[in-house]
Specification:
The complex is a heterotrimer of chains A (243), B (289) and C (234).
Chain A: E1 12-21, E2 24-34, E3 40-43, H1 50-58, E4 65-70, H2 75-79, E5 82-85, H3 96-106, H4 111-124, H5 140-152, E6 158-162, H6 170-185, E7 189-194, H7 197-203, E8 206-211, E9 214-220, H8 221-226, H9 231-237
Helix pairs in contact in A: 3-4, 3-5, 5-6
Chain B: H1 6-12, H2 14-29, E1 35-41, H3 42-47, H4 49-61, E2 64-70, H5 72-81, E3 86-89, H6 92-100, E4 104-120, H7 133-143, E5 147-149, H8 155-167, E6 179-181, H9 186-196, E7 199-203, H10 204-209, E8 216-220, E9 227-235, H11 245-256, H12 258-266, E10 268-269, E11 272-273, E12 276-277
Parallel strand pairs in B: 1-2, 1-3, 5-6, 5-7
Antiparallel strand pairs in B: 3-9, 4-7, 4-8, 4-9, 4-12, 10-11
Helix pairs in contact in B: 7-8, 11-12
Chain C: H1 2-16, H2 20-53, H3 59-69, H4 74-85, H5 100-137, H6 141-151, H7 153-169, H8 172-178, H9 188-197, H10 201-233
The chains are: A alpha/beta (243), B alpha/beta (289), C mainly alpha (234).
Chain lengths: 243, 289, 234
């Protein structure tokens, strides 16, 4: 096992994690070790349990058995240094600017520092002129970029993204991917889910392949895409499994 | 399209709105210094006497008068609880009992008028012009014509029941049939009688000022049993220390004074005098000027 | 129909001449009902939010009770407040009976369940939508309540206006606790009752028209605001 990159929340370790709801097992005994600070993509078909896995890592859901730890921290403590953007962004019924300010207020950022942080976040997300717009009147791509900008405004150590471009048209998706790339390049650990193979190829440093609640393969991207060891993963890459 | 966010600007005004609200609240809450509460009857209220009389009293003394007008029974209850400073009603027996029970200081007769028996012009019971009101009621009962009663324990109601008792005819078994108990003030009862084409007993003051007579007319008047005296009583401060005794006594004194009595006599509706001065030197109170 | 046209004429002439008595009565009605709504809102908005967010044993029963209390008959509230504030009653020493304060108290009680129940519903709906996001941010309970109350501001405003509409239209409570005293506790509804009982039907109807216009105006404003807000903020 390699030494994890120097990062307060790494390694992310999962041991025997199971999760079920209403009698249905969604995550069926998953264990992994993530030490690299590169972009980790959880890849798999729809219904594989990717969203649930992400939420378990973020602490929004509790495993029915097993354990998840970020570095030396408990899940709750780790969550304070993380931020998440969901597949369907939940934007407040306020302006774009106020959505960002809300995060700063909740986290107790002093009033004098807020304006600069908001401006920087808007700039980075390409939403510079839209501060006064009602957030829910933005286009799909803009809303997703806002959700990610909102997650990133305080530069959390880890950014979790759940299917960030699934509902977007290609142009909007490209904008979001650029934003993700820039954030990852600045040193933030990104853990994201997708069922889009091409996107995973573009963005992943390492890939976790999930199918039917089980982690079938976890490998660096280059290895995974050229010669996947797991037959189901190989089938998925070849387009034999529904995406 | 960039619309000016009018709605969100409105919410920037929230602090101002709250300040306005605070002003409204304090405005609604402030009480009255130098004022007394008089528990009186709907008949006196509806006649308009208070609108005429009270400003003259306030000008003379600087004391504000707030009148709560309800049925006599309820007025007495209010005074018993100490929620009023003065009681001004028109039922002698209840007034004497109030003083005898130690709830009031003394009974001061203030004014009088009379009751009238009104009914539809068609007068199915044939009582028009009768001089014996008890006999008239008897005819109404025997003919089963609609009679609307106050039914609210007021002075008028008590008088009505006394007259029925004198007539020897008991209307109560017919309650809901031709004997309709409205349970309301004089005005509402007159409304009901006018709408139903029924008979009712009313004080003259309310009758003359009533604005919806329909085809009702006075059919019986003048019987001395229809005499209607009003008295004022100051609520006993030994029972209720918070009573504004000085101001309350000033009010009663003014009513029984020459000026007050003249003011009462000067009150007219449609050219008719509705109340007649009836102050006598009451127990322990000399007529004041 | 003749009655009606004289009523309209009466109303218009009162308004045109800025009849002093009319203005006094309308202002008092607004003072009392607005005060009641403000007081009730200060309690009801956070209360509704708290019930929506905090689970506790018997919460279901509390929610049902709160919704049921929306139907509290004003005249019964009036009677209860009267018994409380009468000199013979427990709070008698405050001398509040037959004052505008008593009317504000009674109307606050009537309006509180309405605003609380609607607030609870609004916050519960928003909570479902926002819960994950707020938990992800690590919001405290107080922060969540504040966030949801503000984001629900338009629906809550509609709830508040519903409360105001109820308050300004009721007569049962204010006539009992206020005593309908001229120049002191006489409001639009009690004046209508009084003028009707004096047989001055045209005047009563005229006042009624003014009251209806006011009440409808408030409701219409509430609808316009909530509609505009929904289109803009989503």
């Amino acid at each position: 096992m390699e030494k994890p990159d120097d990062h307060p929340l790494l390694p992310l370790v999962a041991r025997g994690v199971k999760f079920g709801i209403n009698g249905r097992q969604i995550i069926k005994d998953v264990s992994f070790w993530i030490g690299s600070s590169g972009r980790t993509v959880i890849l798999g078909p729809n219904g594989a349990g990717k969203s649930v896995m992400l939420r378990l890592c973020h602490g929004l859901l509790q495993p029915s058995s097993g354990e998840i730890r970020w570095g030396d921290l408990s899940i709750a403590a780790a969550r304070e240094q993380q931020a998440m953007a969901s597949q369907h962004p939940v934007l407040l019924r306020r302006t774009v600017r106020d959505n960002l300010l809300h995060v700063l207020r909740v986290k107790g950022v002093p009033r004098s520092e807020r304006q600069a942080l908001v401006d920087a976040a808007l700039e980075q997300a390409g939403l510079a002129g839209l501060g006064a717009r009602a957030a829910r009147t933005l286009s799909g791509g803009q809303q997703q970029r806002l959700a990610i900008a909102r997650a990133f405004v305080l530069k959390p150590k880890v950014l979790l993204l759940d299917e960030p471009t699934t509902n977007l048209d290609p142009a909007a998706a490209r904008g979001v991917e650029e934003l993700i790339g820039a954030i990852g390049a600045a040193g933030t650990k990104i853990l994201m889910t997708t069922h889009d193979i091409a996107q995973a190829r573009r963005l992943a440093a390492d890939v976790m392949f999930l199918n039917d609640g089980r982690l079938l393969e976890h490998a660096p991207a280059a290895e995974f895409f050229t010669s996947p060891k797991d037959p189901v993963a190989a089938g998925f890459l070849a387009g034999e499994l529904p995406a | 399209m960039r619309n000016e966010p009018r709605v969100s600007r409105a919410f920037g005004r929230l602090p101002v709105a709250l300040a306005l609200a605070a002003m409204l609240i304090t405005g609604a809450v402030h009480g009255q210094p130098h004022s007394i509460t008089v528990a009186s009857t709907t008949s006196t209220q509806n006649s308009g006497l208070f609108d005429w009389l009270l400003p003259q009293f306030t000008e003379a003394t600087g004391i504000e008068v707030q009148v709560v007008a309800v049925g006599t029974g309820q007025a007495i209850r209010i005074a018993t609880n100490g929620d009023a400073d003065v009681l001004l009603v028109h039922h002698e027996a209840s007034e004497r009992k109030f003083v005898a029970d130690g709830l009031g200081l003394a009974r001061h007769p203030v004014m009088h008028n009379d009751f009238v028996l009104v009914g539809p012009a068609s007068d199915a019971a044939g009582i028009r012009g009768m001089s014996d009101v008890a006999a008239a009621l008897r005819r109404i009962g025997e003919s089963g014509s609609i009679f609307v009663s106050r039914g609210d324990d007021s002075g008028t109601h008590k008088k009505e029941l006394e007259l029925w008792a004198t007539s020897g005819f008991d209307p109560r078994p017919a309650s809901g049939d031709w004997y309709r108990e409205s349970g309301s003030g004089m005005g509402a009862t007159l409304n009901t009688a006018a709408a139903m084409g029924g008979y009712t007993l009313s004080d003259r003051g309310s009758w003359v000022s009533f604005g919806n007579k329909g085809d009702l007319e006075i059919l019986v008047e003048g019987d001395e049993r229809l005499h209607n005296p009003y008295s004022a009583i100051v609520v006993n401060p030994e029972r209720h220390p918070h009573v504004h005794v000085r101001e309350a006594q000033a009010f009663v004194d003014w009513l029984t004074s020459t000026r007050g009595q003249a003011a009462i006599a000067a009150f007219r509706v449609d050219g008719q005098q509705l109340f007649f001065p009836g102050a006598e030197p009451g127990a322990g109170v000399a007529g004041k000027d | 129909m003749n009655e009606f046209s004289s009523a309209v004429a009466a109303a218009l002439s009162m308004i045109a001449t800025l009849n002093a008595d009319l203005i006094e009565i309308v202002l008092l009605s607004l003072q009392v009902s607005l005060s009641a709504v403000v007081i009730a809102s200060i309690i009801a908005l956070p209360l509704g939010a708290l019930i929506a967010l905090q689970s506790f044993p018997g919460r279901r029963a509390v929610v049902i009770l709160l919704n049921a209390l929306m139907g509290l008959p004003p005249v019964v509230v009036g009677l209860l407040v009267y018994l409380l504030l009468s000199r013979a009653g427990p709070l008698g020493s405050m001398g509040l009976l037959f004052t505008p304060t008593a009317m504000v108290i009674a109307q606050s009680i009537i309006v509180l369940p309405i605003i609380a129940a609607l607030s609870r519903q609004t916050i519960a709906d928003l909570h479902e939508e926002y819960d994950e996001h707020l938990r992800s941010l690590g919001c405290t309970r107080m922060q969540s309540i504040a966030t949801l109350l503000w984001d629900g501001r338009f629906r809550l405003l509609t709830a508040i206006m519903a409360g105001f509409g109820r308050a300004i239209a009721e007569v049962g409570a204010v006539i009992i606790v206020g005593g309908n005293i001229q120049h002191a506790t006489r409001v639009m509804t009690t004046t209508i009752a009084l003028e009707t009982s004096k047989g001055n039907l045209a005047l009563a109807l005229g006042l009624g028209l003014i009251l209806v216009t006011l009440a409808l105006g408030v409701n219409a404003a509430a609808l316009v605001i909530s509609d505009a807000a929904r289109r803009r903020y989503g």
